[in-house]
C-alpha cells in the first residue's frame, strides 16, 4: 500500500510537471506573438497578466516604460488605467448597499441634496442605477471637465444643472463620465470619507494592491512607473505629460500594475471573494455583470459571426465572445490605454496596460490571449487591426491632400476689429474661456488648455488647441461669434458636445483699469437730446451714470472713451472728444442711440 501511494504521488508529480511544461510552451510562443503585436502596432510598451480561478498564471512586460532611456516594462510597472477605474467606483456603492446605506432605486438628490439636473423630469425620475449604467439621457459633456478641470467637487456639481440632455431617460445608452463622478461623491457623502479613501480601504487594502494610487505625485515618485506616449500613424513616438483628472477622479484616476489589478479580476471571477474573504457582495457582483442597458445592436459581423451583443452592467461592458460570456472595461487617458476583462463561467481573467495613447493594442492582445486560453481557433486579430490602421493612414493622407488643394484664404472679413473679440466667455455648465489679442493673433485659454484662432468666414474662426505642447492642426473647433442688438460681440458658440447644438458662451469684455485722474475728464452734466439732464460722476474710484428716475449705473471701461453699463447687457456709453476735451456722450442701446452734449 505504501508503495502504491508513493507511485500515485510520483504519478501526480509527473502530471503537474507535464502541465507546467505544457503551459510553459504555450506561454513561450505567446511571448513571441505579443511582442510581434507590440512592434507592428508601434506600441512603446505594455504589460499583460492572465489569471485562472484564484491564481496568476502569467504576467509579463514588453517593450519600454521609458523609451528615451530604454527602460523595460515589468509586470509591476504602474500605468494609468483610465476608465477601468469605473468598476471600483460603482462597487463602493455595492458594498454600501449591503450595509443598507443606499438604495439604488432612490434619486441621487437624496444623497447629494444640492444636486440639480437641467430638466424637472430628470430631478424627479433619475435614480442611482441610471448613473451606474449610462442611461440618464445626458450625453458626455466631456470638454466640460477635460478643458475646464477643477479640484472643487462643489463647482462640478453646480455645472451639472446646466448640462442639457439629448434624449429621454433610459431611451438610449450614452457614456457619461460625470455620472461616475456623482457616484464617487455619493459614496463620500455616505461614509464621510473621500472616494480615494473608500476605494483604498474597501478594495486596495484588502486585495494587496499596495502600490496602486490615485494621484500623479504618487505615480511620479514610484520607482517602477511608466511614462505615457502618443504614436502617430507614421509611427512617431512622442512623450506626453500626465493628465491631472482632478475632482473627476471617480471616472478614471487609478494608477496600477497588471500584477495588482489581477487581484481585482480574481475577486470578480470568484463571486466577490479574495483569499476566502467576501470583498464585494455576491449579489452585487451578479447584478453588476448582468445587462442593465443595451449599448448597441451588437449583431454578428460577417468576419466574426461568433462575437455578438453589446450591453452594459455597472461599470462593465458585456458581450458574447465566440460563445463565451465576457465582462470587460477599457480605459484611455493621456498617454495610456487599458483593458480589464474576465470570463466568469471560464474562470479566466486578462489584464492589459499600455503606455500608448488611444491604443488598439489592449483589444488585440485581449483577443489573442482569449483565443489561446479558451482553446479557440485563433483569428488574425493583429492582421485585421494593422490593415485598418493602414486604411486610416491612407484616408488621412487623402483628406490632407484634398484639404491642401482646396484650401484658400477667406474672401470675407470679420465684422469687427480683432480687439472686439477679446474678453471672458462663460457657460455655467462648462467654465470660462479667455480670449486675448497678441501680435495680431487671438489666443484662447480655457481652465487647462490653450489655443489660437484663425479666421475662417465672417465671424467664424477655427480654434486650434495647443495640446501636449503642440498645436493640433488636424482638428479645429469652429468658434462662431454672435452679436447683440447694438452690434457688439456678445458671445460665441462652440460645438463642444456632438450630441447637441453648439454650446453658447456669454461674453464679458475685458475691463480696462483707469485711474481716478483718467476718469475725472468724463465727470459732468450732460443734456440728453437737449431735454433731460444726466450726471456722470466718480464714487469710490469708479465712474457712474445717473438718469433721473432710474438707479445709478456703474460704467466699465472697454476701450478708448467707451464704457459698458455693468448690469445691463447690450447697453453702453461712448464719450466724444474734441481738442482734448470731452464734449458729449452717446447712450447706445437696443432701441437706438441717444446723444447728450456736455453742459458748460
UniProtKB/TrEMBL annotation:
Keyword terms: Hydrolase, Signal
Example GO molecular function term?
hydrolase activity
Does the record carry Signal as a key word? yes
* Endpoints of the signal sequence: 1-20
Q: Does the keyword Signal apply?
A: yes
Q: Which InterPro entries match?
A: AmpC-like, Beta-lactam-related, Beta-lactam/transpept-like, Peptidase_S12_Pab87-rel_C
Question: Superkingdom of this entry's organism?
Answer: Bacteria
Which SUPFAM superfamilies does this entry report, sorted A to Z?
beta-lactamase/transpeptidase-like
What protein does this entry describe?
Answer: Serine hydrolase
Q: Which organism was this protein described from?
A: Algoriphagus sediminis
